Amino acid sequence: MHPLCIRFCALRRVNPSRDSGAGVIFTVAIDGPAAAGKGTIGRAIAARFGFAHLDTGLLYRAVGAKGGDPVQAAQSLTPGDLARDDLRTLAAGQAASVVAVDPEVRAALIAFQRRFARADGGAVLDGRDIGTVICPEAEVKLYVTASAETRAHRRWLEVGGDEARVLSDVVERDRRDSERAEAPLKRAADAHVIDTSALSAEAAVAVAVGLVEAALARGRG
Ligand code: DC
After folding, report:
1. CA of 113, closest atom in ligand 1
2. Do 60 and 34 meet the contact criterion of CB atoms below 8 Å apart?
3. Homologous superfamily of 3-210 in CATH?
4. For a surface tag, which of 63, 147, 162, 192 has the fewest beta carbons within 10 Å of its beta carbon?
5. How far is residue 63's CA from residue 65's CA, in Å, rounded to a whole number?
6. pLDDT tens-digit profile of 132-161?
7. What number of other Cβ atoms are within 10 A of residue 202's Cβ?
8. Radius of gyration from C-alpha coordinates of the chain
């Protein structure tokens, strides 16, 4: 079993804050390009419904940051690797996007993500291939997007530096993530699109919460 699974599966069993979702297999799959608002929406949905949340970009960022053979890094990733404080930089994002092209790296991380998605209690995962590859059976699929300029401006507010460079970084990463052969970034045919270019975070979260509530109600009905 992957080292991440041992730890995260144990956490899911003992975390009392997740009691409200106990007994439910329900996955919210969120995909989209960098800095579109996936994380904000994912965290808010997880908190609102008591679901577990996995930022899958962090897995690839941790693999890229570890250095050495990326396949070995992916196979041996531990919770400590995900807790590094240098994973949010532009450089870590680029390194993640580069290692994410490798099918063996992706294969090493699939089982953990699938188990997380379908574990008892409900789960929200955000990334690039959640609704298409990791959990095509997800009860709710969201494709969260925004113009490249909007996304770059948001990222620039977080990381600072030269805004034009942040924009070219975002555009380069979008291109690599969508053009790779294995599990490229693309909207699942049954995903709801949320374009956050002209939406506040609160408004985007409200749209997503409404879609999850509707799916939960259909499941009960
Ligand atoms: O979501 P993020 O910006 O933290 O992701 C960093 C990189 O990781 C992204 O550019 C591509 C890769 N990634 C991926 O290939 N598949 C995922 N499910 C999540 C991220």
Report:
1. 18
2. no
3. P-loop containing nucleotide triphosphate hydrolases (3.40.50.300)
4. 162
5. 5
6. 999 999 999 999 999 999 999 999 999 999
7. 9
8. 17
